[in-house]
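Comment thread on ticket #2218

A.B. wrote:
> Attaching the input chain for the structure job we discussed in standup.
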Amino acid sequence: MIELSSLTVSYGETVAVDRVDLTVKTGEIMALLGPSGCGKSSLLRGIVGLEPSTGDILVDGKSVQNVPVHLRRIGMVFQEAQLFTHRDVAGNIAYGLRGLPKKEIAARVTELLALVGLEGMGERSVTTLSGGQAQRVALARSLAPRPSVLLLDEPLSALDRVLRERLSGDLREILKAAEATAVYVTHDHDEAFTVADRVGIMDFGKLLQVGTPAELLARPADSAVAGFLGNMPLLEGRVTERSGDRTRLTLPNEIEIPGTVDTDTVRLRIKPLP
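C.D. wrote:
> Ran it. Output below, let me know if you need it in another format.
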């Protein structure tokens, strides 16, 4: 489990992450979704310790705010695989297992190769891998030391659309099989909804809403969330009459809706019936 309390990341006077509170349960996959520059990648960098932050970060109930990066037990997968070209596939996966008995390392590498669908490829040079295979190796390398939390910063963004769509489903299966607690950053709606159990919408450094994909689509917290999800139009309306439990609006055409409102202007979201 990871818990963030008023986490803030700043670059000089620019606030990139603004007092974010978030809890990700053990074994849960949380996606952070938002436009470029909204602060989602800065949030990951603050969690892992690559950027200074204020607030608190608890991993399995213990604060890691003042713990060095290499001791936080947090793994990270970046946009580019960033593999060690002087090591083969197995050598890359084993990198975080240094100091363990050789038999234990070999068994863990074999287990992870099977988990990410690369059985029998341990001796392959990483320079011969496709983009999708390279990211699978990077994922296996991050999972190897069994981190308490795994952070993934747009790991599929460098791949083409077709491959991204195929791997997003595989990635969810891999993370669930590994029982990983994960925070997954993306700007792609479909990718977030495919991979994650819950999704957090970010903009301007703030976490606007957290919920399951179904909850976000059915009940966006505000017009910013609804607008970002972008699949349903918002209409501006003006209240022209209130009568009991009914309200008459001009949209510009006049309609009557159930319920009452206490403002003179409203925004309506149009959603098709199931």
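A.B. wrote:
> Thanks. Noting for the ticket: The first helix runs from residue 40 to 48.
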